[in-house]
Amino acid sequence: MINRRDLALSTLAVSALALTAPAFAASADEEAVAKKVEAFRLAQIAADPKALGALCWDDLSYSHSSGKVEDKATFVANATDGKSKFLSIEYKDPTIKVVGPAAIVRFHWIAEQEMAADGKKVPTNLHILMNWQKQGDEWKLLSRAATKL
Question: Where is the signal peptide (predicted)?
Fold first, then answer.
């Protein structure tokens, strides 16, 4: 017969084992990159030039699904110019692979923007590839490419 106390203790033991099992734990670098990716998503929604600029390398190469390529200054200016605003951005099914001082991030982008000129809502459905590079202790976005789905 198992009582509640024994059940609770066994549950805690299994939980502790799961937390310490290295095969299932993300690396510290993967966790750090995941936080930067989420910060980038939030900065895009907020159209925050300071936050976007801080997350990107000075030599950023930012490619849109249209084929247009922007450097850091152009990307930040266009992303925050007020011509449109994001109503939502979801980074669905993300994967992060850290290789030395680089991280390869992929996800399915599902978003909706509203155009300032006419209020038109524009949905986007993309596959995104981001390359992040470690600079000292910080991860910065080095390049981004998008493909329409």
Answer: 1-25
